Structure to design on (215 residues):
């Protein structure tokens, strides 16, 4: 059997098992999607959101990219964010990074890796913003892992800077923002940063002022 054929076979077994356990399982799911959470995570195959939180299909709306970045010109991320906030009306947005993240490690080298240089550039910026703190950490792994925490915090702040989230904060006092880091060694998630709806931004220049017709 070819490797990919195993996935299709496992899918058949899974679907059968679901219906066996609960005959209406798929019927229920097909009709409604009302997740409370938007998850922005790393593409890393070792950090599957539903599995590590024991949640089920329908519970988390998910966007993943290398190093769980929120880049304000990324139309893919922004489209997911807008749909999650304005249509699904999620109550919480979680940015979940993970220790030992290859994307963050690569950003801390001087290697030129092709197209991905442009993506990793955003992480280099986070290093620059926090250089004073990071350069004081002598141990390499500790330094990378602290940057991973600071990167998660920066991406949460980036979500708060969007007009999408600021307008939702004004209109419905949600969503709340959470920055988490997953540890591959013990499977545990560590919360590192929180922003309740309506929190002040890290700099007032990013605050939008709305009149009644504002978008
Ligand atoms: Co990663």
């Amino acid at each position: 059997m070819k490797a990919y054929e195993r996935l299709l076979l496992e899918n058949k077994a899974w679907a059968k098992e679901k219906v066996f356990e609960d005959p209406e399982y798929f019927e229920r799911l097909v009709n409604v999607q009302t997740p409370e959470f938007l998850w922005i995570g790393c593409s890393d195959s070792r950090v599957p959101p539903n599995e590590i939180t024991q949640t089920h299909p329908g519970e988390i709306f998910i966007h993943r990219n290398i190093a769980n970045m929120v880049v304000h010109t990324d139309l893919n991320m922004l489209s997911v964010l807008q749909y999650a906030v304005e249509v699904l009306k999620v109550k919480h947005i979680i940015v979940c990074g993970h220790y030992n993240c290859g994307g963050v490690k690569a950003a801390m080298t001087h290697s030129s890796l092709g197209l991905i240089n442009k993506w990793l550039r955003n992480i280099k910026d986070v290093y620059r913003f926090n250089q004073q703190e990071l350069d004081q950490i002598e141990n390499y792994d500790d330094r990378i892992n602290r940057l991973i925490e600071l990167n998660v915090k920066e991406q949460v702040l980036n979500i708060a800077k969007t007009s999408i989230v600021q307008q939702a904060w004004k209109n419905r006092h949600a969503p709340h923002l959470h920055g988490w880091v997953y540890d591959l060694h013990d499977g545990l998630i560590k919360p590192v940063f929180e922003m309740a709806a309506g929190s002040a931004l890290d700099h007032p220049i990013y605050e939008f002022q709305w009149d009644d017709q504002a978008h």
Observations:
- The longest strand covers residues 92-98.
- The chain has a mean pLDDT of 96.
- Residues 97 and 110 are 22 Å apart (CA to CA).
